[in-house]
Sequence to fold (353 residues):
Amino acid sequence: MLTMKIISLSKELHKSHPTLLTTIFFILGFIFDILTLGRIDETSNFIGHFIYLILLIYTFLTLEKKISHTRLKFLDEYKLDLFHFLAGGLLSAFAIFFIKSSSISQSFFFISIVLILLIINEAPKFQQIGYVAKLALIQFCLTSFFIIYIPVIFGTYGSFTFIISTIASSLLLPILFKKIGHKLEKPTTIISTILALFFFIGYFSNLIPPVPLSVKKIGIYHKIEKSEGKYLLYYETPKYKFWSQGDQNFQAQPGDSIYVFARIFAPVGLESNIYIQWEKWEHSWKVSDKIRMSIQGGNSWGYRAYAYKKNYTSGLWRAKILTENDKELGRIDFNIESVPPTSRQWNIDIEKK
Fold:
């Protein structure tokens, strides 16, 4: 009896307040994703998103079909809501992964597209438009899934992996629709091709974040010491200035070196080279140094990497963390000001190895 009352109430809500129900589905999907989303290389994430994709495609294929089973007939009214719940769950997860994998300034355009899709996916007007828009939504999720998880599965990252992932994902729907003789086979092929070109342009224009790598922390320090399996990070900035990442307003006394420290996450089994690039503003950004270092994946805290610079001048600087193919993982801006020798009071952050 209770189940029938809940079903009856939800039907009334669906008819009288479709926007409210859509909002509830959106919030539930987003909250569920935040509570369950862990590391990008967790098996549970891969399995969960894989199941979401299968259900998303299956739900789309059954939108025009009526459920014949008497007790399940009520689900006909919720297939569209289920489709957008699944799409919202995937888009929110992928948005989080993309945001973590690059500085916002570098990948703002692409991340904005993902967030816009996430929002309009829940709009009633979008949910009622034709199947072409829904196919584009499926293909976007499918390609995002491939470019995120193929590097995780095979432990490799780079342009070749991205190209293979994008091509494979763009072929999947057209092949499936052709095999089942679906009426939207041709539109699916066109949409998949257009989105593949979109992803290629975004990648080679440095607009797509370099998933699955990500910078978990970056800061500027006066000194870094290793002690008993830990990194000791020395800085002067008062602790109440919690927004400052170390000494971003760097007071340089004679003989000081400037240290950049970063924690870089990479999935288990992935080994790669990254670069810390120093740049100074002189009417435009001029590259000063580019230091290469190797990282290994698997540490949930992130691989610790740092570099230091002895030769510098006063002014506005920035340090960028780059992949082997010059994709930006993160950056930090800081100002160097030369000051006379004075006594100092150090604050120390402790980072585990």
